Protein backbone atom coordinates (compact mmCIF):
# COMPACT_ATOMS: atom_id res chain seq x y z
CA UNK A 1 0.00 0.00 0.00
CA UNK A 2 1.52 3.34 -1.01
CA UNK A 3 1.36 6.26 1.41
CA UNK A 4 0.24 9.73 0.38
CA UNK A 5 0.88 11.96 3.44
CA UNK A 6 3.21 14.40 1.66
CA UNK A 7 1.00 14.53 -1.43
CA UNK A 8 -1.95 15.32 0.88
CA UNK A 9 0.03 18.13 2.53
CA UNK A 10 0.94 19.62 -0.87
CA UNK A 11 -2.65 19.26 -2.04
CA UNK A 12 -3.84 21.26 0.99
CA UNK A 13 -1.38 24.05 0.16
CA UNK A 14 -2.20 23.88 -3.54
CA UNK A 15 -5.92 24.31 -2.97
CA UNK A 16 -5.30 27.64 -1.22
CA UNK A 17 -3.58 29.18 -4.22
CA UNK A 18 -4.70 27.13 -7.26
CA UNK A 19 -8.39 26.39 -7.97
CA UNK A 20 -8.98 22.76 -6.99
CA UNK A 21 -5.25 22.45 -6.32
CA UNK A 22 -4.45 21.56 -9.94
CA UNK A 23 -3.58 23.34 -13.16
CA UNK A 24 -5.62 20.98 -15.33
CA UNK A 25 -8.89 19.52 -13.97
CA UNK A 26 -8.48 15.81 -14.68
CA UNK A 27 -5.34 15.69 -12.50
CA UNK A 28 -7.52 16.29 -9.44
CA UNK A 29 -8.78 12.71 -8.92
CA UNK A 30 -12.35 14.08 -8.70
CA UNK A 31 -13.68 11.14 -10.71
CA UNK A 32 -11.93 8.47 -8.65
CA UNK A 33 -11.75 10.13 -5.22
CA UNK A 34 -8.71 10.45 -3.00
CA UNK A 35 -5.63 12.63 -3.09
CA UNK A 36 -3.80 13.33 -6.33
CA UNK A 37 -0.19 12.19 -6.21
CA UNK A 38 2.29 15.05 -6.45
CA UNK A 39 5.22 13.94 -8.57
CA UNK A 40 8.76 14.70 -7.48
CA UNK A 41 10.73 13.02 -10.27
CA UNK A 42 10.41 10.60 -13.17
CA UNK A 43 12.76 8.33 -15.09
CA UNK A 44 11.92 5.88 -17.86
CA UNK A 45 8.57 4.23 -17.15
CA UNK A 46 8.58 5.24 -13.48
CA UNK A 47 7.32 8.16 -11.43
CA UNK A 48 8.49 8.96 -7.92
CA UNK A 49 5.86 10.81 -5.93
CA UNK A 50 6.34 13.26 -3.07
CA UNK A 51 6.17 10.40 -0.54
CA UNK A 52 8.91 8.48 -2.34
CA UNK A 53 6.56 5.86 -3.85
CA UNK A 54 7.74 4.31 -7.10
CA UNK A 55 4.85 4.14 -9.59
CA UNK A 56 4.81 2.53 -13.05
CA UNK A 57 3.39 5.31 -15.21
CA UNK A 58 0.58 4.61 -17.70
CA UNK A 59 -0.29 8.29 -18.16
CA UNK A 60 3.01 9.44 -19.70
CA UNK A 61 1.93 13.07 -19.27
CA UNK A 62 -1.25 12.19 -21.21
CA UNK A 63 0.74 11.11 -24.25
CA UNK A 64 3.89 13.15 -24.82
CA UNK A 65 6.43 10.91 -23.04
CA UNK A 66 6.62 8.25 -25.75
CA UNK A 67 10.33 7.64 -25.05
CA UNK A 68 9.78 7.51 -21.29
CA UNK A 69 10.75 10.18 -18.80
CA UNK A 70 14.10 11.99 -18.82
CA UNK A 71 15.37 10.21 -21.94
CA UNK A 72 19.13 10.93 -21.94
CA UNK A 73 19.25 12.24 -25.54
CA UNK A 74 16.25 14.52 -25.05
CA UNK A 75 17.69 15.86 -21.79
CA UNK A 76 21.06 16.48 -23.49
CA UNK A 77 19.40 18.39 -26.35
CA UNK A 78 17.32 20.45 -23.92
CA UNK A 79 20.29 21.22 -21.68
CA UNK A 80 22.35 22.27 -24.67
CA UNK A 81 19.56 24.49 -26.01
CA UNK A 82 18.81 26.07 -22.62
CA UNK A 83 22.48 26.93 -22.11
CA UNK A 84 22.26 29.04 -25.28
CA UNK A 85 19.25 31.00 -24.00
CA UNK A 86 15.66 29.94 -23.47
CA UNK A 87 13.67 32.35 -25.67
CA UNK A 88 14.59 35.07 -28.15
CA UNK A 89 11.37 36.20 -29.81
CA UNK A 90 13.20 35.84 -33.12
CA UNK A 91 13.42 32.89 -35.52
CA UNK A 92 15.85 30.01 -34.92
CA UNK A 93 17.29 26.98 -36.70
CA UNK A 94 15.64 24.74 -34.06
CA UNK A 95 12.11 25.66 -35.13
CA UNK A 96 12.95 25.19 -38.82
CA UNK A 97 14.23 21.70 -38.00
CA UNK A 98 11.11 20.81 -36.02
CA UNK A 99 8.82 22.12 -38.79
CA UNK A 100 10.81 20.14 -41.38
CA UNK A 101 10.55 16.98 -39.27
CA UNK A 102 6.76 17.35 -39.04
CA UNK A 103 6.30 18.09 -42.75
CA UNK A 104 8.53 15.15 -43.68
CA UNK A 105 6.43 12.70 -41.62
CA UNK A 106 2.88 13.92 -42.26
CA UNK A 107 0.59 14.91 -45.15
CA UNK A 108 0.95 18.68 -44.47
CA UNK A 109 3.00 21.02 -46.66
CA UNK A 110 3.54 23.78 -44.11
CA UNK A 111 3.13 24.07 -40.35
CA UNK A 112 3.02 26.81 -37.81
CA UNK A 113 4.32 26.06 -34.33
CA UNK A 114 2.29 27.08 -31.29
CA UNK A 115 2.44 26.25 -27.57
CA UNK A 116 -0.58 24.01 -26.96
CA UNK A 117 -3.05 21.78 -28.76
CA UNK A 118 -5.80 24.20 -27.75
CA UNK A 119 -4.05 27.02 -29.59
CA UNK A 120 -3.64 24.79 -32.64
CA UNK A 121 -7.33 23.86 -32.90
CA UNK A 122 -8.43 27.41 -32.09
CA UNK A 123 -6.41 28.78 -34.98
CA UNK A 124 -7.41 26.06 -37.40
CA UNK A 125 -11.07 27.05 -36.93
CA UNK A 126 -10.19 30.67 -37.70
CA UNK A 127 -8.26 29.60 -40.78
CA UNK A 128 -11.04 27.31 -42.03
CA UNK A 129 -13.64 30.02 -41.54
CA UNK A 130 -11.47 32.56 -43.34
CA UNK A 131 -10.70 30.18 -46.20
CA UNK A 132 -14.33 29.25 -46.80
CA UNK A 133 -16.11 32.45 -45.77
CA UNK A 134 -18.46 30.24 -43.72
CA UNK A 135 -19.12 30.07 -39.96
CA UNK A 136 -20.45 26.64 -38.99
CA UNK A 137 -18.21 23.96 -37.52
CA UNK A 138 -19.05 20.25 -37.13
CA UNK A 139 -17.59 18.17 -34.29
CA UNK A 140 -18.38 14.83 -32.67
CA UNK A 141 -19.77 14.28 -29.17
CA UNK A 142 -17.04 13.03 -26.85
CA UNK A 143 -14.19 14.38 -28.96
CA UNK A 144 -11.95 16.85 -27.13
CA UNK A 145 -9.97 19.46 -29.01
CA UNK A 146 -8.73 21.58 -26.11
CA UNK A 147 -10.72 24.22 -24.29
CA UNK A 148 -11.59 26.28 -27.38
CA UNK A 149 -15.01 27.95 -26.82
CA UNK A 150 -16.49 26.74 -30.11
CA UNK A 151 -15.39 23.15 -29.47
CA UNK A 152 -16.46 22.91 -25.82
CA UNK A 153 -19.76 21.39 -26.84
CA UNK A 154 -20.26 17.79 -25.70
CA UNK A 155 -16.52 17.57 -25.18
CA UNK A 156 -14.61 14.54 -23.94
CA UNK A 157 -11.55 14.29 -21.66
CA UNK A 158 -11.84 16.28 -18.40
CA UNK A 159 -15.26 17.59 -19.41
CA UNK A 160 -16.51 14.01 -19.75
CA UNK A 161 -14.75 12.93 -16.59
CA UNK A 162 -16.08 15.69 -14.36
CA UNK A 163 -19.34 16.69 -16.02
CA UNK A 164 -22.83 15.70 -15.08
CA UNK A 165 -25.54 15.29 -17.66
CA UNK A 166 -26.46 18.97 -17.46
CA UNK A 167 -22.89 20.16 -17.90
CA UNK A 168 -22.56 17.91 -20.92
CA UNK A 169 -25.35 19.68 -22.75
CA UNK A 170 -24.19 22.22 -25.30
CA UNK A 171 -22.24 24.38 -24.34
CA UNK A 172 -20.15 22.22 -21.97
CA UNK A 173 -18.88 25.06 -19.80
CA UNK A 174 -20.44 28.17 -18.30
CA UNK A 175 -18.73 31.17 -19.84
CA UNK A 176 -18.98 29.82 -23.36
CA UNK A 177 -21.63 32.00 -25.06
CA UNK A 178 -24.54 30.03 -26.48
CA UNK A 179 -24.06 32.16 -29.61
CA UNK A 180 -20.61 30.61 -29.99
CA UNK A 181 -21.67 26.99 -29.65
CA UNK A 182 -24.71 27.78 -31.79
CA UNK A 183 -22.17 27.82 -34.63
CA UNK A 184 -21.12 24.27 -33.70
CA UNK A 185 -23.01 21.20 -34.88
CA UNK A 186 -22.39 18.20 -32.63
CA UNK A 187 -22.92 14.73 -34.08
CA UNK A 188 -22.57 11.16 -32.79
CA UNK A 189 -19.20 9.60 -33.76
CA UNK A 190 -19.20 6.83 -36.37
CA UNK A 191 -22.72 7.85 -37.45
CA UNK A 192 -22.59 8.38 -41.23
CA UNK A 193 -26.32 8.98 -41.50
CA UNK A 194 -26.09 11.90 -39.06
CA UNK A 195 -23.10 13.37 -40.94
CA UNK A 196 -24.86 13.07 -44.29
CA UNK A 197 -28.03 14.66 -42.90
CA UNK A 198 -26.16 17.57 -41.28
CA UNK A 199 -24.33 18.33 -44.53
CA UNK A 200 -27.54 17.97 -46.55
CA UNK A 201 -29.16 20.61 -44.36
CA UNK A 202 -26.26 23.02 -43.68
CA UNK A 203 -23.56 22.00 -46.18
CA UNK A 204 -23.20 25.41 -47.81
CA UNK A 205 -22.62 27.08 -44.42
CA UNK A 206 -20.13 24.58 -42.96
CA UNK A 207 -16.55 25.86 -42.80
CA UNK A 208 -15.05 22.62 -41.53
CA UNK A 209 -15.59 19.33 -39.80
CA UNK A 210 -13.12 18.69 -36.96
CA UNK A 211 -12.53 15.21 -35.63
CA UNK A 212 -9.98 13.46 -33.47
CA UNK A 213 -8.05 11.37 -36.00
CA UNK A 214 -9.00 8.40 -33.81
CA UNK A 215 -10.85 9.47 -30.68
CA UNK A 216 -9.00 8.95 -27.40
CA UNK A 217 -10.78 11.43 -25.14
CA UNK A 218 -13.96 9.39 -24.50
CA UNK A 219 -11.81 6.31 -24.19
CA UNK A 220 -10.40 4.97 -27.44
CA UNK A 221 -13.01 4.65 -30.21
CA UNK A 222 -12.22 2.86 -33.45
CA UNK A 223 -13.16 4.81 -36.61
CA UNK A 224 -15.33 2.25 -38.42
CA UNK A 225 -15.06 0.97 -41.98
CA UNK A 226 -18.21 0.54 -44.07
CA UNK A 227 -18.23 -0.90 -47.60
CA UNK A 228 -14.44 -0.66 -47.54
CA UNK A 229 -14.45 3.06 -46.75
CA UNK A 230 -12.73 4.26 -43.57
CA UNK A 231 -14.76 6.74 -41.47
CA UNK A 232 -12.10 9.44 -41.98
CA UNK A 233 -12.18 8.87 -45.76
CA UNK A 234 -15.96 9.23 -45.65
CA UNK A 235 -15.65 12.47 -43.67
CA UNK A 236 -13.03 13.88 -46.04
CA UNK A 237 -15.18 12.97 -49.04
CA UNK A 238 -18.34 14.50 -47.52
CA UNK A 239 -16.48 17.73 -46.71
CA UNK A 240 -15.07 17.91 -50.23
CA UNK A 241 -18.52 17.40 -51.78
CA UNK A 242 -19.83 20.40 -49.84
CA UNK A 243 -16.83 22.73 -50.15
CA UNK A 244 -16.02 22.39 -46.43
CA UNK A 245 -12.56 21.63 -45.02
CA UNK A 246 -11.71 18.34 -43.29
CA UNK A 247 -9.67 18.93 -40.14
CA UNK A 248 -7.96 16.02 -38.45
CA UNK A 249 -6.91 16.55 -34.83
CA UNK A 250 -3.78 14.43 -34.41
CA UNK A 251 -2.74 16.05 -31.12
CA UNK A 252 -3.02 12.70 -29.34
CA UNK A 253 -2.46 10.22 -32.19
CA UNK A 254 0.22 12.15 -34.11
CA UNK A 255 3.64 10.44 -34.07
CA UNK A 256 2.23 7.95 -31.52
CA UNK A 257 0.13 5.40 -33.39
CA UNK A 258 2.54 5.41 -36.36
CA UNK A 259 5.51 7.57 -37.40
CA UNK A 260 3.02 10.11 -38.80
CA UNK A 261 -0.01 9.32 -36.68
CA UNK A 262 -3.46 8.05 -37.64
CA UNK A 263 -2.69 9.15 -41.23
CA UNK A 264 -0.19 6.28 -41.32
CA UNK A 265 -3.07 3.85 -40.65
CA UNK A 266 -5.86 5.22 -42.85
CA UNK A 267 -3.92 7.18 -45.53
CA UNK A 268 -6.52 9.98 -45.54
CA UNK A 269 -5.13 13.41 -46.45
CA UNK A 270 -6.94 16.13 -44.45
CA UNK A 271 -7.08 19.80 -45.47
CA UNK A 272 -5.73 20.86 -42.09
CA UNK A 273 -4.14 18.89 -39.24
CA UNK A 274 -3.36 19.74 -35.62
CA UNK A 275 -0.44 18.25 -33.69
CA UNK A 276 0.80 18.39 -30.08
CA UNK A 277 1.92 16.12 -27.26
CA UNK A 278 4.66 13.80 -28.71
CA UNK A 279 6.09 16.52 -31.00
CA UNK A 280 6.93 18.68 -27.96
CA UNK A 281 8.99 15.99 -26.22
CA UNK A 282 7.41 16.95 -22.88
CA UNK A 283 7.58 20.72 -23.46
CA UNK A 284 4.75 23.11 -24.37
CA UNK A 285 4.83 22.79 -28.16
CA UNK A 286 2.11 22.05 -30.69
CA UNK A 287 1.46 22.84 -34.35
CA UNK A 288 -1.09 23.01 -37.09
CA UNK A 289 -0.52 22.53 -40.77
CA UNK A 290 -2.01 21.84 -44.16
CA UNK A 291 -1.74 22.67 -47.81
CA UNK A 292 0.55 25.64 -48.50
CA UNK A 293 -2.27 27.47 -50.24
CA UNK A 294 -4.32 27.41 -47.00
CA UNK A 295 -1.38 28.08 -44.67
CA UNK A 296 -0.39 31.11 -46.78
CA UNK A 297 -3.59 32.79 -45.62
CA UNK A 298 -1.88 33.26 -42.25
CA UNK A 299 -0.23 36.47 -41.19
CA UNK A 300 2.33 37.79 -42.18
CA UNK A 301 1.70 36.46 -45.73
CA UNK A 302 -2.08 36.63 -45.53
CA UNK A 303 -4.51 38.44 -43.30
CA UNK A 304 -5.61 35.69 -40.86
CA UNK A 305 -3.94 36.75 -37.64
CA UNK A 306 -2.15 34.32 -35.33
CA UNK A 307 0.90 34.84 -33.12
CA UNK A 308 2.67 33.67 -29.94
CA UNK A 309 5.46 35.02 -27.70
CA UNK A 310 6.82 31.53 -27.02
CA UNK A 311 5.80 29.88 -30.32
CA UNK A 312 8.63 27.75 -31.70
CA UNK A 313 10.51 28.13 -28.42
CA UNK A 314 14.10 26.90 -28.92
CA UNK A 315 14.18 24.57 -25.91
CA UNK A 316 10.80 23.01 -26.76
CA UNK A 317 11.82 22.71 -30.42
CA UNK A 318 15.03 20.92 -29.44
CA UNK A 319 13.07 18.47 -27.26
CA UNK A 320 10.54 17.91 -30.05
CA UNK A 321 13.06 17.42 -32.87
CA UNK A 322 15.14 15.02 -30.78
CA UNK A 323 12.07 13.01 -29.82
CA UNK A 324 10.87 12.74 -33.43
CA UNK A 325 14.36 11.76 -34.61
CA UNK A 326 14.44 8.87 -32.13
CA UNK A 327 11.06 7.50 -33.26
CA UNK A 328 12.15 4.79 -35.68
CA UNK A 329 10.23 1.71 -36.84
CA UNK A 330 11.56 -0.30 -33.91
CA UNK A 331 9.86 2.12 -31.49
CA UNK A 332 6.45 1.43 -33.01
CA UNK A 333 7.05 -2.33 -33.02
CA UNK A 334 7.95 -2.13 -29.32
CA UNK A 335 4.89 -0.03 -28.46
CA UNK A 336 2.57 -2.34 -30.41
CA UNK A 337 4.03 -5.41 -28.69
CA UNK A 338 3.76 -3.83 -25.22
CA UNK A 339 0.17 -2.77 -25.88
CA UNK A 340 -0.61 -6.36 -26.90
CA UNK A 341 0.80 -7.72 -23.64
CA UNK A 342 -1.34 -5.33 -21.59
CA UNK A 343 -4.53 -5.77 -23.62
CA UNK A 344 -4.27 -9.56 -23.26
CA UNK A 345 -3.54 -9.33 -19.54
CA UNK A 346 -6.49 -6.97 -18.99
CA UNK A 347 -8.85 -9.25 -20.90
CA UNK A 348 -7.70 -12.33 -18.97
CA UNK A 349 -7.84 -10.67 -15.55
CA UNK A 350 -11.22 -9.07 -16.14
CA UNK A 351 -12.66 -12.32 -17.51
CA UNK A 352 -11.33 -14.26 -14.51
CA UNK A 353 -12.93 -11.71 -12.17
CA UNK A 354 -16.22 -11.88 -14.10
CA UNK A 355 -15.96 -8.15 -14.84
CA UNK A 356 -17.73 -7.08 -18.04
CA UNK A 357 -15.56 -4.78 -20.15
CA UNK A 358 -14.50 -3.78 -23.66
CA UNK A 359 -10.90 -3.06 -24.69
CA UNK A 360 -10.48 -0.84 -27.78
CA UNK A 361 -7.35 0.28 -29.60
CA UNK A 362 -6.07 2.72 -32.18
CA UNK A 363 -2.61 1.34 -32.83
CA UNK A 364 -0.80 1.12 -29.49
CA UNK A 365 -3.24 3.60 -27.94
CA UNK A 366 -5.92 1.69 -26.07
CA UNK A 367 -8.42 1.96 -23.28
CA UNK A 368 -10.61 -0.23 -21.13
CA UNK A 369 -14.34 0.47 -20.90
CA UNK A 370 -16.15 -0.69 -17.77
CA UNK A 371 -19.30 -1.28 -19.79
CA UNK A 372 -22.22 -3.60 -18.96
CA UNK A 373 -22.51 -7.15 -20.30
CA UNK A 374 -24.71 -6.25 -23.26
CA UNK A 375 -22.09 -3.87 -24.68
CA UNK A 376 -19.55 -5.61 -26.90
CA UNK A 377 -18.37 -2.57 -28.81
CA UNK A 378 -18.15 1.16 -27.98
CA UNK A 379 -18.64 3.14 -31.22
CA UNK A 380 -19.60 6.50 -29.70
CA UNK A 381 -19.87 8.71 -26.65
CA UNK A 382 -23.39 7.63 -25.67
CA UNK A 383 -22.16 4.04 -25.32
CA UNK A 384 -18.98 5.14 -23.50
CA UNK A 385 -21.19 6.92 -20.97
CA UNK A 386 -22.77 3.60 -20.00
CA UNK A 387 -19.58 2.81 -18.07
CA UNK A 388 -19.59 1.81 -14.41
CA UNK A 389 -17.42 4.64 -13.09
CA UNK A 390 -17.57 3.28 -9.52
CA UNK A 391 -16.00 0.00 -10.70
CA UNK A 392 -13.38 2.02 -12.56
CA UNK A 393 -12.58 4.03 -9.40
CA UNK A 394 -12.10 0.84 -7.36
CA UNK A 395 -9.86 -0.57 -10.10
CA UNK A 396 -7.86 2.65 -10.32
CA UNK A 397 -7.17 2.75 -6.56
CA UNK A 398 -6.26 -0.93 -6.36
CA UNK A 399 -3.72 -0.38 -9.14
CA UNK A 400 -2.38 2.79 -7.50
CA UNK A 401 -2.01 1.10 -4.12
CA UNK A 402 0.04 -1.60 -5.86
CA UNK A 403 2.24 1.01 -7.57
CA UNK A 404 0.67 1.47 -11.02
CA UNK A 405 -0.41 4.98 -12.05
CA UNK A 406 -3.38 4.89 -14.47
CA UNK A 407 -5.31 7.85 -15.87
CA UNK A 408 -7.67 8.93 -13.05
CA UNK A 409 -10.65 8.75 -15.40
CA UNK A 410 -12.69 6.06 -17.14
CA UNK A 411 -12.67 8.21 -20.29
CA UNK A 412 -8.97 8.28 -21.08
CA UNK A 413 -6.48 6.15 -23.01
CA UNK A 414 -3.63 4.31 -21.29
CA UNK A 415 -0.29 5.56 -22.62
CA UNK A 416 2.82 3.46 -23.06
CA UNK A 417 6.43 4.39 -23.77
CA UNK A 418 9.47 2.57 -25.11
CA UNK A 419 10.77 2.63 -21.53
CA UNK A 420 8.04 0.17 -20.48
CA UNK A 421 10.35 -2.82 -20.40
CA UNK A 422 9.61 -6.38 -19.30
CA UNK A 423 10.03 -5.44 -15.65
CA UNK A 424 7.52 -2.55 -15.88
CA UNK A 425 5.04 -4.60 -17.92
CA UNK A 426 5.30 -7.55 -15.51
CA UNK A 427 4.54 -5.29 -12.58
CA UNK A 428 1.38 -4.07 -14.31
CA UNK A 429 0.36 -7.58 -15.37
CA UNK A 430 0.86 -8.96 -11.83
CA UNK A 431 -1.25 -6.15 -10.40
CA UNK A 432 -4.21 -6.59 -12.72
CA UNK A 433 -5.98 -9.71 -11.29
CA UNK A 434 -6.46 -8.32 -7.77
CA UNK A 435 -7.48 -4.90 -9.11
CA UNK A 436 -10.01 -6.55 -11.45
CA UNK A 437 -11.44 -8.45 -8.45
CA UNK A 438 -11.67 -5.17 -6.46
CA UNK A 439 -13.57 -3.59 -9.36
CA UNK A 440 -15.84 -6.65 -9.75
CA UNK A 441 -16.75 -6.47 -6.05
CA UNK A 442 -18.00 -2.89 -6.56
CA UNK A 443 -19.59 -3.62 -9.94
CA UNK A 444 -21.71 -6.43 -8.56
CA UNK A 445 -22.52 -4.60 -5.29
N1 LIG B 1 -6.79 17.75 -29.17
C1 LIG B 1 -6.73 16.53 -28.63
C2 LIG B 1 -7.12 15.34 -29.46
C3 LIG B 1 -6.29 16.35 -27.32
O1 LIG B 1 -6.23 15.12 -26.79
C4 LIG B 1 -5.91 17.49 -26.57
C5 LIG B 1 -5.47 17.36 -25.17
O2 LIG B 1 -5.61 16.35 -24.53
C6 LIG B 1 -5.99 18.75 -27.17
C7 LIG B 1 -6.42 18.85 -28.49
C8 LIG B 1 -5.60 19.98 -26.43
O3 LIG B 1 -4.22 20.02 -26.28
P1 LIG B 1 -3.57 20.88 -25.08
O4 LIG B 1 -3.92 20.19 -23.81
O5 LIG B 1 -2.09 20.86 -25.40
O6 LIG B 1 -4.15 22.25 -25.17
TrEMBL record:
UniProt KW keywords = Cytoplasm, Isomerase, Porphyrin biosynthesis, Pyridoxal phosphate
Q: Which Gene3D superfamilies match?
A: Aspartate Aminotransferase, domain 1, Type I PLP-dependent aspartate aminotransferase-like (Major domain)
Q: Name one GO molecular function term.
A: glutamate-1-semialdehyde 2,1-aminomutase activity
At what positions is N6-(pyridoxal phosphate)lysine found? 277
In terms of Pfam families, this protein maps to:
Aminotran_3 (PF00202)
Q: In which pathway does it act?
A: Porphyrin-containing compound metabolism; protoporphyrin-IX biosynthesis; 5-aminolevulinate from L-glutamyl-tRNA(Glu): step 2/2
Q: GO CC annotation: what is one?
A: cytoplasm
Q: Where in the cell is it found?
A: Cytoplasm
Task: Identify the domain of life.
Answer: Bacteria
InterPro entries xref list: 4pyrrol_synth_GluAld_NH2Trfase, Aminotrans_3, PyrdxlP-dep_Trfase, PyrdxlP-dep_Trfase_major, PyrdxlP-dep_Trfase_small
Main localization of the protein described in the UniProt heading: cytoplasm
Q: Which residues does UniProt assign to the signal peptide?
A: none
Its EC number is 5.4.3.8
According to its UniProt record, which cofactors does this protein need? pyridoxal 5'-phosphate
Listed under catalytic activity are: (S)-4-amino-5-oxopentanoate = 5-aminolevulinate
**GO BP of this protein:** protoporphyrinogen IX biosynthetic process
Q: Which PANTHER family match?
A: GLUTAMATE-1-SEMIALDEHYDE 2,1-AMINOMUTASE (PTHR43713), GLUTAMATE-1-SEMIALDEHYDE 2,1-AMINOMUTASE 1, CHLOROPLASTIC-RELATED (PTHR43713:SF3)
Membership in a protein family: Belongs to the class-III pyridoxal-phosphate-dependent aminotransferase family. HemL subfamily.
Record text on subunit structure and interactions: Homodimer.
Full protein name? Glutamate-1-semialdehyde 2,1-aminomutase
